[in-house]
Design a protein that fits this description.
The complex is a heterodimer of chains A (115) and B (119).
Chain A (H helix, E strand, L loop, with lengths): L2 E3 L4 E5 L4 E3 L2 E3 L5 E8 L6 E7 L7 E2 L2 E6 L4 E6 L8 E9 L7 E2 L3 E6 L1
Parallel strand pairs in A: 2-12
Antiparallel strand pairs in A: 1-4, 3-9, 5-6, 5-10, 7-8, 8-9, 10-11, 10-12
Chain B lengths: L4 E3 L2 E4 L5 E6 L6 E8 L3 E9 L2 E5 L6 E5 L5 E5 L8 E8 L14 E2 L3 E5 L1
The chains are: A mainly beta (115), B mainly beta (119).
Chain lengths: 115, 119
Amino acid sequence: AQKITQTQPGMFVQEKEAVTLDCTYDTSDQSYGLFWYKQPSSGEMIFLIYQGSYDEQNATEGRYSLNFQKARKSANLVISASQLGDSAMYFCAMRDLTNDYKLSFGAGTTVTVRA
Amino acid sequence: DSGVTQTPKHLITATGQRVTLRCSPRSGDLSVYWYQQSLDQGLQFLIQYYNGEERAKGNILERFSAQQFPDLHSELNLSSLELGDSALYFCASSPNSGTETSGRGGEQFFGPGTRLTVL
């Protein structure tokens, strides 16, 4: 079974600063994918970034980067140059790429960006 | 806009009733996934359909059922509703069955959700 742990229920960050959201996972699968989604107060789920377990380089998408440490089973999301519009709930998720189809989600971290 | 549509956006009903949530996937996507987001359970996978056939089942109650039609839209039926069924129900779609390892690991595109309130 897969388990995703996000230990930070809420975080505050100053505008233009960087913030790191923690995510650890537990799986016995060899081939898996890690995802981060953003959920603003309006409720929709917005895909941010993806990291495959066999990818040697950390994924980056604009201001988002993923600090992937496979041996530690962690996939932390870094948001650089925070903007007010980054205030939202952020979810880490994982999927087994060979035998499973569903996304397993962590509990989420609420980020509030202060002006 | 992900290209996935869900109707209705909001639904308020009473205990014991039955409701149907509808989802239209992105054009060309064959897989539809249903997720439930509640305060106590978080985001949970319910069920997946691929090209009209049930592919995977998660923590879906027996009172809930789903189907995917030939035009690939999907419906989630919730019956004998209880207060605890109040949640945000998401539909997601992806182009493939989900086992592919290329690209973004089978990225799922989420619809805006249907917020169900059971009174």
